[in-house]
Design a protein that fits this description.
Elements lengths: L6 H8 L44 H6 L3 E4 L30 E3 L1 H8 L5 H10 L2 H4 L4 H21 L6 E4 L8 H17 L7 E6 L2 H12 L4 E6 L2 H10 L3 E5 H10 L4 H8 L4 H16 L4 E5 L4 H7 L4 E4 L1 H9 L6 H37 L6
Parallel strand pairs: 1-8, 2-3, 3-4, 4-5, 5-6, 6-7, 7-8
Helix pairs in contact: 4-6, 6-7, 7-8, 8-9, 9-12, 10-12
Amino acid sequence: MSISIASSQFSAALLTKRGSWTGSARPPPSLLIRLRRSLPRVRVFAGNASPADTDLSNELDAVLSFSEIVPDTVVFDDFERHDGIHDLFHFAPLCRFPPTAATVSSSLLLGLCSLPDTKFKSAIETALADSECYGRENSSDRLSCFSNKALVNVGADLARFVPGRVSTEVDARLAYDTRGIIRKVHELLKLYNELEVSSQRLLFKIPSTWQGIEASRLLESEGIQTHLTFVYSFSQAAAAAQAGASVIQIFVGRIRDWARNHSGDPEIEAACKNGEDPGLALVKKTYNYIHKYGHKSKLMAAAVRNKQDIFSLLGIDYIIAPLKILQSLKESLVKWDQRSFASAMGPAAEELVAAGLEGYVNQTRRVEELFGKIWPPPNV
């Protein structure tokens, strides 16, 4: 089965408690990767259709029944505008979607520095005024100290506004330095401890080079949760799972984009030859691998491009979704009546339903004819 589940397969999957994905050596916990809650009475259809028979109000509610959605859009408002309550993740009125987790990174710091005064910019300024950093004679050490403090100050503030974990980026210049990554994570964790942020609320985002994966293995053995990113191949994903990474992040759309403009990657070409989207195929293969061998890692899908990507990924632990897609899911709702139902069925459904009914009718008649011949029984 292709990971891009067709309409009938997708609706059946939502109503199936257990199933399997093609390629798994043994059936995984469910066709939808991992059901986070008991199944709702809901049918969600891929393509242009929307929920037809549901206790939930729209496709977004249905999606949330299976995966945790992490918004990919952040707009910063000033604290005072909301009487001290900072609306960090601010959505259009039609699709207000509270954040569940957050990432603090160098790109986020750059964005904050370009904004007017906010609580988060204040966190950066506090870091730049830190006397410990000022006391370092080496300029590189001083700047590294400032960066660490800024990341952690902002991360600690974020931890107060999201119920889930905050992932903190590890300096990408250390991507091929296992000891350097571990040392950097220890430095960041020490600063978080000083701000009384529990390590259970933290992830450390590390590039999935071999050295990064090895650093993840060693950090996880210490009880430090890691988030391996830049996963674009099964070898990376499998090694990350073996290392015990808490989160493995696969960039679905980026793999698809690469495949459109390049050739020569055997893994991608094999997926395309099988009629699969290479990014979604990697998620499927990684999921099957994790559950086949009982690894603890959670999957995160990023760079999703459309609603069909969301539907095809339902059940993985985290999906990072752009605001436009969330709005589309929020606004998708069809209230069916007899006329709209009949017009939407299409010739295939009409013909197949009629054929199925005819078969059942014929079997019922044969049963009645048989009963007519053998009744009454000899001993009655």
